[in-house]
Specification:
Elements: E1 7-9, E2 17-18, E3 31-33, E4 41-42, E5 55-57, E6 79-81, H1 92-95, E7 103-105, E8 127-129, H2 142-150, E9 162-164, E10 171-173, H3 191-235
Parallel strand pairs: 1-3, 2-4, 3-5, 5-6, 6-7, 7-8
Antiparallel strand pairs: 9-10
Organism: Mustela putorius furo
Pfam families: LRR_8
GO molecular function: potassium channel activator activity; transmembrane transporter binding; voltage-gated potassium channel activity
């Protein structure tokens, strides 16, 4: 690519995969269009040289999964479209923290829920498109429903989003689910809770192990003393035994 190129339009081609460093030397790109390429695989380091990129369109491809850190280098990204793929799950680590992202399209995928924390790293999100996914009514939908209630403006289509009740043919609007509807679901651990678990867990284990070892040592010592006392009592002459003959 020539230096100074701002837009690269590769839509409607046959780009099946993006290897590591696929765009090395294209650090000035602001827009990258990869729509309708039959794209199946994107390496986690495919976009590493695109720190200035603002618009990325990966829509209408065959992506089923994205590796952790795929979009982490794109700190200037403002618009990302993953619409029309085969994504059944999107991990928070794949998106990472995109502080300037304003538009995210996840339309027409295979998403049944959004992973907890997926949208937490998108503080500037202004437009979120979610239609065309087989949302499943259940505890896994709690993070998305909670986010939609707190951010009604970024998702104007929220009123039209429906989820399927497992084992039932009926549909329910996502906006009908309040916090009370998820009261039977276990609350996911927060960062502080996880820190307590990770810190106190090993300490408690080691303390329990030390206590067990100490108790075992005490019991062993007690049994040893009792055994020695029994042996000595058998060896010691009884007071009733007659002395040796004169």
């Amino acid at each position: 690519l020539s230096r100074g190129v701002r837009a690269l339009l590769l839509d409607h081609n046959r780009v099946r995969a993006l290897p590591p460093g696929a765009f090395v030397g294209a650090g000035t790109l602001l827009r990258l269009d990869l729509r309708e390429n039959g794209l199946r695989w994107v390496h986690a380091r495919a976009f590493w040289s695109l720190g200035a990129l603002q618009q990325l369109d990966l829509s209408d491809n065959l992506l089923e999964a994205l590796a952790p850190g795929t979009f982490s280098p794109l700190r200037a990204l403002r618009s990302l479209s993953l619409a029309g793929n085969r994504l059944a799950r999107l991990e928070p680590a794949a998106l990472g923290a995109l502080p300037l992202l304003r538009a995210l399209s996840l339309r027409d995928n295979q998403l049944s829920a959004l992973a907890p924390g997926l949208l937490a790293g998108l503080p500037a999100l202004h437009a979120l498109h979610l239609r065309g996914n087989p949302w499943t009514c259940g505890c896994a939908l709690r993070p998305l429903c909670s986010w939609l209630r707190r951010h009604p403006r970024p998702a104007p289509e929220a009123e039209t989003l429906l989820c399927v009740l497992p084992g039932r043919p009926s549909l329910s609007p996502l906006t009908a689910f309040t916090d009370a509807a998820f009261s039977h679901c276990s609350q996911p651990l927060g960062p502080w809770d996880l820190a307590v678990v990770y810190v106190l867990g090993p300490v408690s284990f080691l303390a329990s192990l030390a206590a067990c070892l100490a108790l075992g040592s005490a019991l062993t010592a007690c049994r040893t003393r009792r055994s020695r006392a029994g042996v000595l009592s058998r060896l010691r002459p009884s007071a009733r035994d007659p002395g040796p003959p004169a």
